[in-house]
Amino acid sequence: MPSIPRRQERRPESWQNSVVSSGQNVPVSATINSSSSSLVTVPLTSHSSALAKIESLMESMLDAVIAGVELPIPYRTVRSAPAGPGIRSSQNHDRQSDIVRFPGRTIQEAKRFEALFCILQLSHEALLSGKLITKRNIYYQNPELFKSQSMVDDMVDNLAFTLGVGRTDLNIVAAAKGLVSGPIDLVLNDGSVNSYDLLGSTGSLLPPVSSIQQIDFRCIKWVLVIEKEATFRTLAASGYAMSSQLGHGILLTGKGFPDLDTRRFLCLLHSLRSNMNIFALIDFDPDGIAIMRTYKNGSRRLEHEQDATVPRLRWLGIHSNDILSSNASDHEEGVGSDGSGASQDGSSQESGASSSYGSQQERPAKRARMSRMNPGPIESVCPLTQRDRKKAVEVMKEIIAAADGCGEDEFEQMLELQRMLLLNIKAEMQAVDNFGDITRWLDAKLPC
Amino acid sequence: MSKQYLTAHTVDQAHPADIFSLAPTPTSLLSASGSSSLLVHSTTDASFPLQQTIAAAHKLGCHHVCTARGGVGSVAASVGFGGEIKIWSSDGKEFHLEWEITPATWASNNGNGNGNGAAGGADVWAIALSADEGYLACTTSDGRIHVWDLAAREKIQTYETGARGGGSFAMAVDLSVDGRLTASGHESGAVYVFNNDAGRTVYSLSGLAKPVRAVAFSPGCKRLAAAGNAGVIALYDMEHGEHVGNLTTPSTRPAWITSLDWNETGEYLLSGSLDGKVKVWDVARGVCVATHSETEGALWSVRWLPKTERALAPGMGKGEMFCAAGASRSITFYREATGS
């Protein structure tokens, strides 16, 4: 059971120390909820500065109440609000400077003040108690006031920027999104142990990565990152993590584009067990490849984030060959004898060329077996939309811009995007399954 | 009676990525692939040596390259995945970049009142050069076909196949050798034929129902061949716009056809498909007379080479040659067997 090395930039000091230094009296041991709770108890870093800033803001409001003047909350909006601690690095961007006052000139302003005050209050509470509060939870405190989740998201990021701190410094986090299933135990900071191989479970939510103290890998050999929740649930329910021919492993999904915590978790697994195989199962479409690239190389929006990439992630499928295989192996029987004679001549002459091709792609024998298993993946393809085609070109431009010297994986991504555009097709991963059961395909694909 | 074709030569791993398109001139063959370079191979030597490498032609790779059917081979055009069209001219030795039509040019050049700014909204796909090498037809993913005058560098015609760009993706295009007709093949399975003199649609041909990936006029401009996911080659008469026949082999699920080409006399049609098979069809008899399958990987392009006056090597004869390329990244040249 290897311990996670303490990373200074994430947790400068132990949690108690930082709280004690700020002079706050905080209960050291807090109650722990299970991993799926929206309210989790271990903060990333308790920045006393955030607490001090909120308190000085409150003091100034109190002064205003005593003086009988309008209450001010400084509030600057971020045009395209970047999430996370990156806010600090972009101080110079164009932002609208503003102060929200109460009672203010309009009813909207009064409501905005109330909403901001509510967030400040919740953040203050969270900082004092050392708990994390999710943005979702903030919204549910008063849905009528906040109107929409995105309004809360924007306000939190703007508030963090105005105060000159990161979102996590306010002890506000996004709700957990990633799901895990498989024989693995996560030991959290408080000593509780989360297991993810419970019978009949179809996967559980990931705890915040910063709360993970230790991981018991047991005997897992591989990690399968799955784009879609539906496929993840099906595989989790069938216990594939335990029954795979490749041995024990774990299944992970970020439900589409992964959030930072899911990516951090995957990176953590990778950094602790660098020899473990990590595979990606994605749709054959531009978004699928973009999602895989987010796990692998990070996202552009959060590219300042450390410890969130897994360069060794391998693309298991689905590829163009998986879809076209039935087409390729459908041998014609009724060609005229003359024609097939020529065919034999040709193939014997060119055995060199075809074998070199075979080694680069997949083994023909395997391909033939796959196509018998699936009556016709090629029947389940869809044409690309205009948006898909634009997205494909965007991703290709990203690959070319990012890859110096273009690695083998980037080359593969380019090739598959090009084939996608050329054929003008996309396919869901369900194209290769066997009436909803993708386990046989996986067993055939996973390298033994 | 079958035709015998033998493998004359294979340029192994000609490109580091899938070869998507081939275009012959009287003395050379241009190849385009998923990598950024265009290659020019000499076809006057039995070893088909590399004659020119046009490096960094298309940053994101190139999906179509074309030369004029029956042309002198002084102009070539290529389209990159980034949506840019490049026009190349040859001085007899090497190809040089003559002109580039960028996606930005699309947006600004609205032609002689035929275009409408929205052309920039869809990506450019297939291209075809007229036999006199003066005009370029190109399709868009929203079903338009634009015709450019290369000398004047302006768009002179836009054919719409749907209401204001709502047409089905035009995956293939061809110009008849006499310059009179333009044909387009669409995702929807539709095939349209336009009269270039009148600037209007003359035939809307149905019959394939599945995406059409290749269209080709016969050298005499009397027939149009179209093929795609249906796996059969449909032949249409261009005098009356009638469907006159299908070329097909008995098969439960024929492979998608990706490429078509007529030989110089119009007697034979060449087809390439996703299952790696290249076929020669006797059009008059409606039968497949030769099948070659070098590879299991998809073939993206098959082309006849223009007939040469002299044999490439002793004992090779002056028979017709063709070439095929695709996912194997190699280009295979075939020649007609001598003495048959």
From TrEMBL, chain A:
Instruction: List, from the UniProt record, the residues annotated as the active site of this protein.
Output: Y140
UniProt-annotated stretches for the region Disordered: 1-20, 326-382
Query: Which GO MF terms are attached to this record?
Result: ATP binding; DNA binding; DNA topoisomerase type II (double strand cut, ATP-hydrolyzing) activity; metal ion binding
Cofactor(s) for this UniProt protein:
Mg(2+)
Domain of life of the organism in this record?
Answer: Eukaryota
Q: Which GO terms describe its cellular component?
A: nuclear chromosome
> What range(s) does the Spo11/DNA topoisomerase VI subunit A N-terminal domain occupy?
111-172
**Which EC number(s) does UniProt give?**
5.6.2.2
Alphabetically, which GO biological process terms does the record hold? meiotic DNA double-strand break formation; meiotic DNA double-strand break processing; reciprocal meiotic recombination
Q: Which PROSITE patterns match?
A: TOPO_IIB
- Quote any Pfam family the record assigns: TP6A_N
**Keywords assigned by UniProt, alphabetized:** DNA-binding, Isomerase, Magnesium, Metal-binding, Topoisomerase
- What reaction does this enzyme carry out catalytically? ATP-dependent breakage, passage and rejoining of double-stranded DNA
What InterPro entries does the annotation carry? Answer: Spo11/TopoVI_A, Spo11/TopoVI_A_N, Spo11/TopoVI_A_sf, TOPRIM_Topo6A/Spo11, WH-like_DNA-bd_sf
Q: Where is this chain compositionally biased, Basic and acidic residues type? A: 1-13
Per UniProt, the ranges with Low complexity bias are: 340-362
Locate the Topoisomerase 6 subunit A/Spo11 TOPRIM domain: which residues? 222-331
Enzyme class of the recorded protein, top EC level: isomerase
State the coiled-coil residue ranges.
Answer: none
Family to which this protein belongs: Belongs to the TOP6A family.
Q: What is this protein called?
A: DNA topoisomerase (ATP-hydrolyzing)
At the highest ranks, the source species' classification is:
Eukaryota, Fungi, Dikarya, Ascomycota, Pezizomycotina
From TrEMBL, chain B:
Write down the superkingdom of origin: Eukaryota
Q: Which GO terms describe its cellular component?
A: nucleus; protein-containing complex
Question: Which keywords does this chain's UniProt record carry?
Answer: Repeat, WD repeat
Q: Where are the WD repeats?
A: 124-158, 257-291
Q: Which InterPro entries match?
A: SKI8 (IPR051510), WD40/YVTN_repeat-like_dom_sf (IPR015943), WD40_repeat_CS (IPR019775), WD40_repeat_dom_sf (IPR036322), WD40_rpt (IPR001680)
SUPFAM superfamilies in the record: WD40 repeat-like
Q: What is this protein called?
A: WD40 repeat-like protein
Give the lineage: Eukaryota, Fungi, Dikarya, Ascomycota, Pezizomycotina
